[in-house]
Amino acid sequence: MQNELPMNDPRGIWQNQPKEPFRMSVDQMRLKAHRFQMKARFKVLYAITIGVSISVFFGWNCIRAQEVLSRMGFGLLSVSGIYFAYQAYKWIWPSNLPQDAPASTSLEFYRSELERRRDYSQHVWRRSGLTFCFLGLALVIAPALIASFYNPRLLVNTVPFFLLLTVWFVAFLYVKKRGQNRLQQEIDELRTFETDGGS
Amino acid sequence: MQSTAVQNASQNSLYEQVAETFGSALDRLARAYELDAEARRDLLQDIHLQLWRSFTYFDQRCSLRTWVYRVAHNVATKHVMRQRRIRDRLVNIENFDFLPGSDQAELAASDTEALGRLSMLIQRLKPLDRQIIVSYLEGMDASSIGEITGLSAANISMKVHRIKNILKRWFGEGELHAE
Prior knowledge:
Chain A has helices at about 10-15, 25-65, 70-90, 105-120, 125, 130-150, 150-199. Chain A has about 200 residues and is mainly alpha-helical.
């Protein structure tokens, strides 16, 4: 059937689509901005509370631990909690657009967003305090691991855990690397567009 | 104190002007980035909020229209970038044909279906190409699209040409508007 309606005019369809009534007064805008700030602060406070709770929990275990290695491990885990809280404050707080965002073109903005994501992914270990966390965990389980050398049955029991941990670690690195490559490829493409625009 | 009051008045009046002039266009823009009605309303609110905020430092380096579209697209882009599952499946307009279901041989039976199809097409594109197709559908010329996106006229022409071909296939469009 030949189409006689204006359905073959995408511009017309797009521009004449049904509207959803939306209106915000300046006062509503102010209220919304205030709520937005409150929400952002609440998010940060929530993350800080979690970080501090982790820190207190492991700090308490650090005091109670008998072994030196365990004590150091719990100490590091406690530090990772504080570090997590600090990073949450640093990264979650500015949840608005940067001040210069509107002045930048969509191309610049999109590229900077991709670069930010790539950088975050590159430094995920440092930013989420995973280095402290894993080092702490390693120290906490070290005494049990040493003891297991004298009791091979215990060592066998831990094999599935370490196997899973290794599989997770390899998969994590693979996915991270693949994501980074994809992001870098897209950033490079956008840079080509910028060069073309400048020439 | 007085200068702050003047600045606030200017910010508010600019916002009122923009909401009046570009309200419908911003509504359509939000639709290009979010299909879910509830999430779209939140996005639209966010766009309006960031626009209102942005007018405190609007320095007239570009036209008001360009400023409005840049802010709106940037807010919407951030919205898309937050959704990892969706973000990873988006494609460039150049790779669109390789997507399953990208070959729409039959014409849409109604306006609603045609709009749904158009929205589906737009939702599959990466933010930059999405901005170009939305600007094209809004009836902008290549130089206006270039001002908003920062792409060169040659790149815009190439992408618009590609968009027109896809639209032609999807909607059986006879005469596409040449820019």
